[in-house]
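Hi V.,

Quick status before I head out on leave. The structure for the redesign project is tokenized and pasted below; the design run finished overnight.
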């Protein structure tokens, strides 16, 4: 029997993807929590040996590391083919692969280019506050010296420098997010229960944390049934599955909630109106 250890962070989209997949496959594992922006645990040498890109998550299988959320899902699905959900349907077509590409947090793509990378982009106000728990110089040193993805080094240093999204970035993210929400709403016109069909798959593991992030970042009105009926129905279905609580809610670190309160009080995201005006432009 394999011994699994997952290195993850509660409020990380890609960690949520893999925890959902493990929950849907009924696989138990040991968990190692690494704090990202507030402490930079992922930039330490011992983690970089497991994951040279210094990204979360990593799953070790009998101490051998696998990185990339999609590859981890593929591995556990093959290894436990007869257990839990079938994450990669046997005869899936090209449309399934394209859907995964669109939803995957692909660190080689630009922020906003796909729904996956937009999940990172809309998180920046919180990431900035967490980075600001550390001095500018320790962030500068740590990220420039140790971060494994060159284009991210500069982004994180800029975000720490401004203490929030660099000028213009969040406005751009609103237009990307609008595009991806409208696209997903239209995609769900297929009327099936899940994003790819009537069975839960890896594509649902990828999109659930993205929609969770939209909700968490206080973009109001997306899931209330009025403007996006398909998305609202779909959100209702996936967030009621036991895996949502088991893999996402139960793993929250508690670091994000106070930051969200500091940013938005009891109200919506400060860019909520801009998001809706971007949505209206393209609907
Ligand atoms: N393609 C990777 C992306 C992983 C990724 O971007 N993880 C984020 C958290 S959601 C991370 O580690 N961010 C920390 C950083 O870039 O410093 C995967 O899907 O596993």
């Amino acid at each position: 029997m394999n011994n699994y250890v997952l290195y993850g962070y509660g409020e990380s989209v890609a960690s949520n993807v893999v925890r959902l997949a493990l929950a849907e496959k009924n696989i138990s594992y040991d968990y190692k929590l690494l704090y990202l922006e507030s402490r930079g645990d992922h930039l330490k040498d011992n983690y970089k040996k497991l994951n040279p890109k210094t990204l979360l998550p990593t799953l070790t299988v009998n101490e051998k590391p696998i990185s990339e959320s999609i590859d981890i899902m593929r591995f556990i699905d093959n290894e436990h083919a007869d257990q839990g959900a079938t994450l990669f349907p046997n005869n899936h077509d090209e449309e399934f692969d394209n859907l995964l590409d669109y939803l995957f947090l692909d660190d080689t793509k630009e922020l906003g280019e796909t729904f996956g990378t937009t999940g990172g982009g809309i998180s920046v106000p919180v990431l900035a506050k967490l980075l600001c728990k550390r001095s500018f110089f320790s962030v500068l040193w740590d990220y420039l010296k140790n971060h494994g993805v060159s284009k991210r080094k500069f982004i994180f240093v800029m975000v720490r420098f401004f203490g929030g999204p660099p000028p213009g970035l969040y406005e751009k993210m609103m237009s990307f997010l609008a595009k991806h929400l409208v696209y997903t709403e239209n995609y769900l016109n297929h009327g099936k229960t899940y994003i790819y069909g009537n069975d839960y798959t890896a594509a649902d593991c990828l999109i659930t944390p993205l929609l969770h992030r939209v909700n968490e970042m206080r973009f109001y009105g997306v899931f209330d049934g009025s403007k996006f009926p398909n998305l609202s129905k779909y959100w209702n279905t996936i967030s009621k599955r036991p895996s949502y609580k088991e893999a996402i809610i139960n793993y929250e670190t508690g670091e994000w909630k106070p930051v969200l309160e500091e940013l938005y009080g009891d109200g919506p995201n400060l860019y909520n109106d801009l998001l809706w005006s971007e949505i209206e432009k393209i609907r």
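Above is the designed sequence. The chain has a mean pLDDT of 97.

G. will cover questions while I'm gone.

Best,
W.
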